[in-house]
Design goal:
There is one protein chain. The protein is built from 12 helices and 15 strands. The chain is an alpha+beta fold. The protein folds into 3 domains: 97 residues, Carboxypeptidase-like, regulatory domain (Immunoglobulin-like); 116 residues, no CATH class; 133 residues, Glutaredoxin (3-Layer(aba) Sandwich), CATH 3.40.30.10. Helix 1 packs across helix 5 and helix 3 runs antiparallel to helix 5. It is globular and about 65 Å long.
């Protein structure tokens, strides 16, 4: 039954041959039109930025304009060939599109809520058939993210409830379609429907990951097909280089490898590194003031810290905040009793430590070597950290271990 349904879905999504031939032509000029529902009342001028994804890790701003009195904006793109562009409205709202035809988008714009949190907001961009791949994939990511937050919050508050029935149900009840599986099913249908289209380059980066295996091999094969079929798609070649570079960097972050040597400003503006923690077990927590899951994890990390501090366990939090005032405010509110550092280059830090979501945590041993990496702070992550600390602290030396050089790149 599942196979029959899948065949119907693909038939509906299949692109007509005539349309495919038309869209294989290089589009040299595209008009972008849009509106924002809300602007920032505190700003005299509200701006919208247009960036192009170069698949090297950070999109490049190529144009900007002021939001008009009628809340509209527009751009004219001149290009050698179509690619992925990102609209950034007032640094609050975003929309992504494939530039093989004129596009139109109506965005929410500025966040009007009393408590502002920068979370993804889905914006549908009216454009071409290929552009709908971006629309559908962005929607899939958005729904997955919001479901993750909902499930995380439900579990968090269920554990705090005096009536344990709620948490017991969540813990013991088998979900019909687990979140990860639900996301994967939709992603697979999209991939099969658009596998030979140039816009697929937008998805391959995330599909490849950084670990060797079937998933990585399949993604690289798809990329090679795009490179051969669309010689003009220079982004595919750049993406191949980026994936290979990220994989090599991920190998440097595997268990047993030295923790990278880094220095970041502390709360007083002085540069501080991790070398001082040699001889102790160290949890390095990458977080940000605007990250809800990060801040929900802090009380649990405090419990760990109190339980194991006397046994040679330390914590360092490294924020990727770009707003220093927000970072300082969050530090004061959370009152974390360990060292706080602020990344002076968020993009470089995320690339160096190979993460796109936070909290991301690295557990480091007394010799400065990576023991474990955790994406998010779950019960399973906490269990593994406690097990590692319990084993390690029993054999931990009373005196600080001899200095071992940490890797630097």
């Amino acid at each position: 039954m599942k196979k029959a349904i899948f065949k119907i879905c693909v038939a509906v999504l299949a692109i007509p041959a005539a349309l495919q031939a038309q869209q294989n032509k290089l589009v040299k000029s595209v008009t972008v039109k849009g509106t924002v529902e809300f602007t920032d009342p505190k700003q005299a001028v509200n701006k919208v930025f247009l960036s192009k994804d170069n698949f090297k890790g950070k999109p490049v701003v190529v144009d900007s304009c002021e939001v008009g009195k009628d809340n509209s904006f527009s751009f004219k793109i001149k290009q050698d060939h179509q690619g992925i562009y990102i609209i950034n409205a007032m640094n609050w709202d975003r929309a992504t599109f494939w530039s093989d035809a004129d596009v139109t988008v109506h965005m929410r714009g500025y966040d009007t809520s009393k408590y502002k949190v920068k979370i993804p907001h889905y914006n549908y961009v009216a454009g071409s058939y290929d552009n709908n791949f971006v629309n559908l994939r962005e929607l899939n990511n958005e729904l997955n993210y919001r479901r993750m937050v909902d499930e995380y919050n439900m579990e968090y508050y269920a554990k705090k409830a005096t009536d344990t029935t709620w948490y017991a149900y969540m813990r013991d009840h088998q979900k019909y379609n687990p979140m990860g599986e639900d996301y994967k099913i939709r992603e697979e249908v999209l991939t099969k429907a658009y596998a030979d289209r140039p816009v697929m380059v937008y998805a391959i980066r995330g599909m490849a990951g950084t670990q060797a295996g079937t998933q990585y091999d399949n993604a690289m094969k798809m990329l090679e097909v795009l490179i051969a079929r669309y010689p003009w798609l220079t982004e595919a070649k750049l993406l191949k280089e980026t994936i290979i570079t990220n994989k090599a960097q991920a190998m440097r972050l595997k268990a047993g490898q030295p923790m990278p040597s880094v220095q970041y400003p502390d709360a007083n503006g002085s540069l501080a590194g991790l070398e001082k923690y040699k001889g102790k077990y160290l949890l390095v927590d990458f977080w940000a003031s605007w990250c809800g899951p990060c801040r929900q994890a802090i009380p649990k990390v405090k419990e760990l810290y109190e339980s194991y501090k006397a046994k040679g366990f330390e914590v360092v939090s490294i924020s990727i905040d770009t707003d220093k005032n927000a970072w300082e405010k969050a530090m004061k509110e959370e009152a974390m009793p360990w060292e706080q550092l602020l990344s002076d280059n968020k993009d470089k830090t995320m690339e160096q430590f190979q993460f796109s979501g936070i909290p991301t945590m690295y557990l480091v041993d007394t010799e400065g070597k990576i023991m474990e990496r955790f994406t998010g702070y779950s019960d399973d992550a906490e269990k593994k950290i406690k097990e590692s600390l319990a084993k390690g602290t029993k054999a931990a030396p009373a005196k600080q271990a001899a200095s071992v050089p940490m890797s630097s790149f």
